[in-house]
TrEMBL record:
<feature type="region of interest" description="Disordered">
    <location>
        <begin position="238"/>
        <end position="261"/>
    </location>
</feature>
<dbReference type="InterPro" id="IPR000627">
    <property type="entry name" value="Intradiol_dOase_C"/>
</dbReference>
<feature type="domain" description="Intradiol ring-cleavage dioxygenases">
    <location>
        <begin position="49"/>
        <end position="141"/>
    </location>
</feature>
<protein>
    <recommendedName>
        <fullName>Intradiol ring-cleavage dioxygenases domain-containing protein</fullName>
    </recommendedName>
</protein>
<keyword id="KW-0732">Signal</keyword>
<dbReference type="GO" id="GO:0016702">
    <property type="term" value="F:oxidoreductase activity, acting on single donors with incorporation of molecular oxygen, incorporation of two atoms of oxygen"/>
</dbReference>
<dbReference type="InterPro" id="IPR015889">
    <property type="entry name" value="Intradiol_dOase_core"/>
</dbReference>
<feature type="signal peptide">
    <location>
        <begin position="1"/>
        <end position="17"/>
    </location>
</feature>
<dbReference type="GO" id="GO:0008199">
    <property type="term" value="F:ferric iron binding"/>
</dbReference>
<feature type="compositionally biased region" description="Polar residues">
    <location>
        <begin position="238"/>
        <end position="247"/>
    </location>
</feature>
<dbReference type="Pfam" id="PF00775">
    <property type="entry name" value="Dioxygenase_C"/>
</dbReference>
<feature type="compositionally biased region" description="Pro residues">
    <location>
        <begin position="252"/>
        <end position="261"/>
    </location>
</feature>
Length: 261
């Protein structure tokens, strides 16, 4: 399989603007960008709306995800890009595809929208989402899907902001450290899972897409560890002039859950 690659840098975002600018200067000083592959879109993509909080009140460990987008031609922040994420809930269910997520042999959709959202990057190339630490389902390691749209325009329809036009320059997946996920798995509502969780090195998509390069570093926001909130910061470098080869590629349906799920 031929993968088009993107530049990945992990940064801890500081509230000190001078420190942030020092980090950005170091990034720009790199003579050549490190590259990492894209990954399949998966079967559960659905166009979402522009919003910061995508939880819709669903339970889970609160997780603030910060995505910084860089233009690999200059290693500079890419503003006005549309970061588009989606992931399953704490019990492995995707909104809009609840029946299929439950293992039913159907592509019937529904109107639910939890854990889907888009944000436009600011002048520093940053988009922030408030979500939860994702759950997992049979056959896949814990992950978040992400696309980056370029040159999209926004329109307000009955108070909801939708993106249209432009093109997708990046399609990929963000993964998590297995040891951290082990700890999350001990907490409600994640404990409701009746399946064996797939670890990163057992996930074929993780292996084929070099997922170790897109493991998001996670930090605790309180002294309570996973009993409080956590955050993750990841920087994705893209070529905004190209079109993703993985956009629109479902990559197959995950296997159904075992009986009794």
């Amino acid at each position: 399989m031929l993968f088009r690659s993107v530049f990945i840098v992990f940064l801890v975002i500081s509230t000190d603007s001078s420190e942030q600018e020092s980090i950005r200067r170091c990034v720009r000083a790199i003579g050549s960008c490190l590259l990492a592959p894209e990954s399949t879109e998966g079967p559960y993509y659905w166009n979402s709306t522009v919003r910061n909080d995508i939880t819709e009140g669903k339970a889970g460990v609160p997780f603030r995800l910060t995505v910084t987008v860089l233009d690999t031609a200059t290693c500079s922040p890419l503003s006005d890009a549309l970061v588009d994420i989606w992931h399953c809930d704490a019990e492995g269910i995707y909104s809009h595809y609840i029946a299929s997520s439950l293992g039913q042999n159907t592509r019937q959709t529904d109107n639910s929208t939890f854990f889907r959202g888009q944000q436009v990057t600011n002048k520093q190339g940053i988009a922030v989402f408030n979500t939860i630490y994702p759950g997992w389902y049979r056959g896949r390691a814990t992950h978040i899907h992400v696309k980056v749209h370029v040159d999209a325009s926004l329109t307000n329809i009955n108070g909801a902001i939708y993106a249209k036009g432009g093109h997708v320059s990046y399609t990929g997946q963000i993964f998590f450290n297995d040891t951290l996920t082990d700890e999350v798995a001990k907490r409600s509502p994640y404990t409701s899972h009746q399946i064996r969780r797939v670890r990163n090195n057992e996930d074929g998509i993780y292996s084929r897409s070099k997922g170790s390069t897109t493991i998001v570093p996670v930090q605790f926001l309180t002294a309570n560890g996973f009993n409080g909130a956590v955050k993750g910061d990841i920087t994705l470098g893209i070529n905004p002039n190209t079109v993703s080869t993985e956009s629109g590629r479902p990559g197959g349906r995950p296997p159904p859950p075992p009986p009794g799920r």
